[in-house]
Amino acid sequence: MPDPFTIDPGTARPDAGKFIQGRGRYLDDISVTGMLHVCFVRSPYAHAKIAGIDASRALELSGVSHVFTGRDLAAVCQPWTARLTNLGEMKTAPQAAMPVDVVRWQGEPVAAVVAVSRAIAEDAAELVEAEYEELPAVTDPEAATGPDAPLVHPELGTNLAWSINIDTGEVDDAMAGADLVIERTFEVNRQTGVTLEPRGAIADYDPSKRYLTLYLTSQVPHIQRYIYARQLGLKEANVRIICPDIGGGFGLKLHVYSDEIATAAISMLLRRPVKFVADRLESFVSDIHARGHRVKARMGVNTDGKIQALEVDDLAGAGPYLIHPRTSVIEPLLVAICTPLAYDLKHYRATASLVYQNKVSTGQYRGVGMPVASLVAEGMVDTAARAIGLDKAEIRKRNLFMDDAYPVTGISGEYLECLSQQASLDKLLGMMDYDGLRGERDAGRNQGIYKGIGLATVVEGTSPSPALYAAGGAPISSRDACTLRLEADGNISCATGLTDQGQGGEAVVTSIVSDVLGVARDEINVVMGDTATTPFGGGTWASRGTAIAGEACLLAAAEMREKILEVAAAVHEQPADILTIRVGDIINLETNDKISSLAEIGNTIHFNTHTLPADLEPELIVTRHYSQREQLMVYANCALGVSLEVDVNTGLVTLHKVWAVDDCGRIINEKLVVEQMRGSIVQGIGSSLYEECIYDEAGQLLNGNMFEYLVPMAGEMPDIECDHIETPTKATQLGAKGCGEAGIIAVCGAIMNGINDALEPFGVEVSSQPFTPEKILRAMGKIG
Predict the structure, then answer these.
(1) How would CATH label the architecture of 289-466+630-779?
(2) Closest listed residue to residue 640, CA positions, set 712, 714, 723, 740
(3) Which of 361, 359, 352, 251 is nearest to 294 (CA)?
(4) What per-residue confidence (pLDDT) applies to 663?
(5) Which residues are CB-contacts of 713 (< 8 A; sequence separation ≥ 6)?
(6) Which of 54, 447, 531, 695 could anchor a disulfide with 129, C-beta 3.0 to 4.6 Å?
(7) Residue 257 CA to chain centroid, in angstroms?
């Protein structure tokens, strides 16, 4: 590897031209000869017995091929059960591609109509007559474990799916000895991720080879291949998953969805290609939801600002099934683990519980529990600061780990290394002109203008190790791989297990391979998202792309460089240790002369091997793997601040500006890091102020459309200023951590704190997200 090893932080996206010219190829752009289309009939009830399904009228419609029920699909698709054995007892039930007897959420598919076009399939779906016997629904998590609560899965004997307890000891004594104990309850809204492109699948089964080709909007093609092969009774080698260009993922496209695997099963039954693309209405009742927590918290604090103890009790809803294969327990697990993680605490107790309910299943969405943990921790810290009359920045400085203390083991047992929380907070306060903002806020109050300043200092878990999922038996790979091949013309073919849903992964891979190998960026061709052409890898999730896949690329490029120089040394009879590669040329370091080029080496390897020594490898191809195995996750940190204003007459919150300082380790491409930070912050603004899946007591989603489910628009966006501190992790040569989720983790707590700062003159606080005008006015006593 070159010494010093440098990465150009300004590399443009290699694929930018494709998208600018409208040449992106998304799933709905793909058509296969003989392809049929499937539309699903979905249950209007949240909980009901299926009394009967009559498809006779639908089958009479011209262009309709078949109508399938759950019983039909059961012949080729086995049910799946999500479970992680390393996280304690989980009460979990199997899920089928379509149910045979009982539906357990509004929107669960009960029949599949197959026709020559999507339009005909939709028309025919309206003609399918499904009869139901409605059952009582479980919607409220607190009521789900009551003695009279109906059971979502009677065979389990309870609606409690999972729980965990963390107790470091002496919490009660520490609370009793604290100068002040504060208590708050936080409610965090259930929401979903609104990706630009809905989910979809095209399944093409070849019965002559028992071979399934599946185009899928997935972030994890290799993991999906394993699962689909297992559930459909196929050899893994006989399943090919192709993930074309994908319009956003955010974790929604990690999971096994019943409608997607049903599409594959239908293709096997019909022996023809079948296409499914969800529309927006379907997305709201079939894409996983996330969040939906009620957290009760207690904090003991002394008047000098030192936190003595923290206790949290988290209750979350899972929906009717634990989502496969990651399960739905990771959100409450990370609430329990990550709530205290930013702070140097000595006493901590946490309980987290997950219950079944008749709503859409919850799963991993950007941030995965950590936005909830941050909201609770940062809210409690601000409340403590107000209670003892200490500035909100100062109380953080007194309780954050000192930057020279690392490595440390956090109070919940997590290994933390190479963080910069104190420096990040100091840099943030300078960017904000914190003292100036305080003066502006105080002056405004005298004029009836109520501005607020919100802070959040968070630790972001990235790049999980096998200890999180694989150790519990889940078929989830935490490693990734890179295969490099020198072509005859001197260009480099690069295949990676990484996938890209808009993050810019191709640019990162290209940068790393280019700089390590010494090849121009435009001479590297990156292939990803196809299980037939890429090495096995975990895909894109948990901000692992650069840290894990990038490290594999670095290792592969370093080995390829050595092999190329070995060949060049043999061909030109010069020592390899005096040779290097610069922009595709082989250079003698002693004379600074060009002695060869990658094109000449490639030509020799591919066509003129007779000129090489007999013991020299005849082809230049390298595959290297990397898996982070030292700790549960690699942790990054972020300090974030907001300036906002609350109209106390209407309750409307206006964001003026957001500042963020992120330490994601070594930065490979600063432009992409800023993109990730801003995008993550915007999604957090949506969580904080707008987005919520609203259900009634019968389990009906009341706002499952883009008119009533509010997402932030350009007009609501404040200016967002980002900066960085680089503290490379020592776990890898690359030194990168992750940066894709820090914004959404931090901004929710910062916005809540900013609102409560603005409301301080009125002596009220809000803690139920989203922080809507109605909730603010109710807290102020202006409405009932």
Answers:
(1) 2-Layer Sandwich (3.30)
(2) 723
(3) 352
(4) 98
(5) none
(6) 54
(7) 16
**pTM beyond 0.85:** yes
Alpha helices in 197-329 (DSSP H): 221-232, 258-270, 280-286
Task: Give the integer Cα–Cα distance in Å for 687 and 702.
Answer: 18
Q: Is 173 helix (H, G, I), strand (E, B) or coil?
A: helix
- CA dist., res. 358 & res. 769, Å (int): 22
- Condensed to tens digits (0 to 9), the pLDDT of residues 714-751 reads 998 999 999 999 999 999 999 999 999 999 999 999 99
Residue 160 phi, psi dihedral angles, 5° rounding: -80, 110
pLDDT at 305 over 80: yes
Give the right CATH number for 16-23+479-627 from 3.30.365.10, 3.40.50.10190, 3.30.470.20, 3.30.565.10.
3.30.365.10
Cα separation, 91 vs 69, whole angstroms: 27
- Number of other CB atoms surrounding residue 181 within 10 Å: 17
Q: DSSP state, 196? A: S
Whether 378 and 457 have beta carbons less than 8 Å apart is answered as yes
- For the record, the structure tokens of 565 come out as 């120089």
Bridge partner list, 615: none
Q: Which residues pair with 310 in a beta bridge?
A: 299, 348
Q: Which of 211, 185, 417 is nearest to 297 (CA)?
A: 185
Architecture category of domain 31-135+194-286 in CATH: Alpha-Beta Complex (3.90)
Tell me the average pLDDT of the chain: 97
Domain range annotation of the chain: 16-23+479-627, 31-135+194-286, 289-466+630-779
- Identify whether the C-beta of residue 148 lies closer than 8 Å to the C-beta of residue 347: no
What are 233's two structure tokens? 């009774």
Over residues 607-611, the mean pLDDT reads 91
Sheet holding 450-462, edge to edge: 450-462, 634-646, 653-663, 719-724
Whether 31-135+194-286 shares its CATH topology with 289-466+630-779 is answered no
> Which of 670, 693, 689 shows the shortest CA–CA distance to 744?
689
* Residues in Cβ contact with 357 at an 8 Å cutoff, skipping those fewer than 6 apart: 138, 139, 140, 141, 144, 152, 159, 317, 318, 319, 320, 699
